[in-house]
Amino acid sequence: MDIRELDRRAVQASVEVVAEVRPGDLERPTPCAGWTLADLLAHMTAQHLGFAAAAEGRGADPDAWRERPGPDPVWAYASAAERVTAAFAAEGVLDRGFVLPELAVDAPFPAVHAIGFHFIDYLVHGWDIARTLGIAYDPDPDLAEAAWPIALAVPDGEYRESPGAAFAPSLPAAPEASRFDQILAHLGRTPVHGLTRPSP
């Protein structure tokens, strides 16, 4: 399947989860160490805009990746998600190289790989939001299967312990773990089931 369609579905699932955020939730801690829900939403919104700029050939501009706090983070997130999905859907985008400064590599990444990075990031960040809110998040099995080889390609090691690392060091997965739970464990998350939304 086209990586853009996989990404679109993962992003849409994240939009649906983010729509459940209420103002009183924004200071909740998230599975991303040291980040509140407000911090995570700001990061996710900025990354959407940065990847959209990269798809349009402007990824080298640091301003494209800057966080822009606003009064309505849920609306800002949905708007940024719509923009990145449209940028990825543009004609000829798969023939372009994406400049992704956060990966500290000067050479552009092939579009398929860059969109794959975005896909795995938002599949997992959707879970981060849901876990913070205490609500269910169960991506379609075909999304998890498509994401598995991308997750395995994310290097493990000490760099994941650095401040601001996208993923924590990998954890062992239970033998009966689903494919998505295996992804979460490989990317340093502890799957939790039977969640109940915490009180405000």
Automatic annotation (TrEMBL):
Signal peptide: none annotated. Pfam families: MDMPI_N. Transmembrane segments: none annotated. This is TIGR03086 family protein. NCBIfam families: maleylpyruvate isomerase family mycothiol-dependent enzyme (TIGR03083), TIGR03086 family metal-binding protein (TIGR03086). Residues 9-130 form the Mycothiol-dependent maleylpyruvate isomerase metal-binding domain.
